[in-house]
Write a structure and sequence with these properties.
Blueprint (H helix, E strand, L loop, with lengths): L6 H13 L4 H8 L3 H58 L2
Length: about 90
């Protein structure tokens, strides 16, 4: 049966491996995880690290684009409603 580890545990072990204060063998004994697994988590963490800093900018840009789309949609809807009201006011004669 494979053992599953939560993400926060993997991150903790990977950070400890990146810090290099203890050897991989010491970390393996300390966290009761195989050395190869620690090295794999370390590699994954180092590979994903650049995305951590750029993800916030991308997310902010996507949120801004969604807001702009929503505002344009509302403007279009208000324009249609305004035109409809103008047309019907002329019909009523007010």
């Amino acid at each position: 049966m494979r053992k599953r580890y939560p993400g926060n545990f993997k991150a903790k072990v990977a950070v400890a491996a990146i810090k290099s204060e203890d050897t991989i063998a010491e970390l393996s004994s300390k966290f009761e995880v195989h050395r190869a697994q620690i090295m794999r988590w370390k590699k994954e963490a180092l590979t994903a690290l650049p995305d951590v800093f750029s993800a916030g900018k991308n997310r902010k840009k996507q949120d801004q684009e969604k807001l702009i789309e929503e505002l344009y949609r509302q403007i279009g809807q208000l324009k249609v409603e305004n035109d409809w009201l103008k047309k019907n006011l002329d019909t009523i004669g007010i």
